[in-house]
Amino acid sequence: MKHAQHLLNLPRLAAFVAICEEGSLSRASQRLGIAQPALSTMIKKIEYDLGVSVLTRHARGSVPTPAGRVLLKSAYEMLGIAEATLDEIGTVNDDPEGEVAIGLPAATSMVLAVPLIKHLRKSLPKVSLRVVETFSGYLWSWLQDGNIDVAVTFDRVSIPEIVCQPLCREDLFLIGNSKLLINAPDTITPDNLYKFPLILPSRIHGIRGKAEAFAASGKGLDIRMEIDASTHLVKLIAAGEGFGLLAKCAVTDELAQNTVRAIPLAPCLSRQVSLGIRRIKIQNPVVARVVEEMKLVSTDLIRSGTWPTS
Hints:
Elements: H1 10-22, H2 25-32, H3 36-50, E1 55-58, E2 61-64, H4 66-90, E3 98-105, H5 106-123, E4 127-134, H6 136-145, E5 150-154, E6 162-171, E7 173-177, E8 198-200, H7 206-215, E9 223-226, H8 230-238, E10 244-246, H9 252-256, E11 260-264, E12 270-278, H10 285-304
Parallel strand pairs: 3-4, 3-5, 8-9
Antiparallel strand pairs: 1-2, 5-12, 6-12, 7-10, 7-11
Helix pairs in contact: 1-2, 1-3, 1-4, 5-10
């Protein structure tokens, strides 16, 4: 390896990250405001220092090589440490302050959003929060694109751009109008799920794939409609327009009012709930504090049963 000290050249690492995220030199050039020849030179210098190629160029753009993927993970960490250092210096001897964008899946938001916001406003009064709510599939894309800093995710693992930290496992149930489920069996199996016409989100979202995998050994699924709007999905289910495969947290109010019923699946169908954090932000002192507070609030809600996981 040649001139190893140049590996900590932050502008070159930032250029490399931008090319990997954008998928091409031209789009990275527009994003950074740096001419393409200059970007190309920066990558060549990285490759000279490392003695290996870090990008594969093809007609549609550029993708990291195996060595490049290793570098990408480290680049996120080094750039994150640099950003965190500047932020920490700027807030030394002060309460943490800054802006943090949090993404919550619609189901989890029902039990987590209000307690979390109240807690963060009290514990981190100088932190400006931006909270967005949507299906988890969209949140994962927004994390990758850098539009949010941290999000609750389902069944995800760490990748170069994102670190996943587990929170809990959460069981899924057949959810339906209580009157329609008066004579329903005690458990729903792959062999009888087809009897319940479903309202499901589209395939971009993990729960759709889990439903299809669950039913694969039985008679399949009867999908009445697709809808990527959680509030309307729950309202339609409660109104008896179809059934859903959901966690109890998505319908806590409806369960309390006995407008819907939750029937267990056999075999049990569950999902891993984690916090996904942009790797470049994980060393940021403000984001790190918000993540720790999110873990505390989530743990308290789960222990108290306010966030039902089974």
